[in-house]
Amino acid sequence: MADKIYPINPAKIGNQKGFRLPQSFFKDYPHLANASGYLQVLSDNTLLVKLDTDDINNDEDESVILSLFLDFLMQDAIKNPDKLVMYTQEMSEEIDDLVADVEIEE
Predict the structure, then answer these.
(1) Which residues contact 8 (CB under 8 A, 6 or more apart)?
(2) Is 84:74 a contact under the CB 8 Å cutoff?
(3) 34 in helix, strand or coil?
């Protein structure tokens, strides 16, 4: 269900402006109906909405955030190709040294 896309529409909420989500969103994710959180602007047309709830699967949440971060990096690389730096053998060796003693639990 995480890949499902929901349309949003502008809505006036009291004296403020907002976005209206379709009923199908709340049918699929009823635990989010009363959640609050925050919104971060990643670019002119990309927003990240983070809701404060304990009911969200953390692995899935981290995957979405990583995907958004990688999308942001790709957009920045396309907009600013002059800032790209070639990955060198020296960089690779330095990273290998930094993580040499790091143990990862499975």
Answers:
(1) 19, 20, 21
(2) no
(3) coil
What is the 8-class DSSP label of residue 15?
T
Helices (H), the chain: 23-28, 58-79, 89-98
pLDDT in tens, the chain (106 residues): 567 899 999 999 888 999 899 999 989 888 888 888 889 998 999 989 888 876 555 556 677 788 888 889 999 999 999 999 999 999 999 999 999 988 888 7
Q: Say which residue the tokens 């790091």 belong to.
A: 102
- The answer to whether residues 72 and 48 touch, using CB atoms and an 8 Å cutoff, is no
Burial 3-42 (b: 16+ CB within 10 A, else e): eeeeeeeeeeeeeeeeeebeeebeeebeebeeeeeeeeee
